[in-house]
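Usage

Read records sequentially. Each one opens with the input sequence:
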Amino acid sequence: MDSISVQYTIMESSSQFAMGVAFGVDPPKQQVDVDIATHISIYDDGPNRSLLLVETADRPGLLVDLVKIFTVINVNVESGEFDTEELLAKAKFHVSYKGEAIIKPLQQVLANSLRYFLRRPTTEEASF
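and closes with the structure output:
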């Protein structure tokens, strides 16, 4: 196999992976369900932190996007876990705002921001 065909194969595989089509050695038996709902829950976890749970469709750059949202809202992440199960990404973060648990109004802002930025992008017809 020459370097051009290897490069093409890698690029083709990368684009398939980015679109959620190629997983592991064998492709999935059925087409990918792109309508995985996003679930966000925020609970008080003591006086100084809150527990944020996020379940959404997995995609490249998801963790980076989550951190960007936290940064914009000025939410501090004390610790976190991130796991994927096939097409579903599950994240658990201990978060705080200015050293305190996140109050209810800010919880709503955080949940709404996450829902907005984690939704599937749509292309407007006018953009064509």
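Summary fields computed downstream for this record:
- The chain has three helices and four strands.
- Confidence is low (pLDDT under 50) at residues 1-18.
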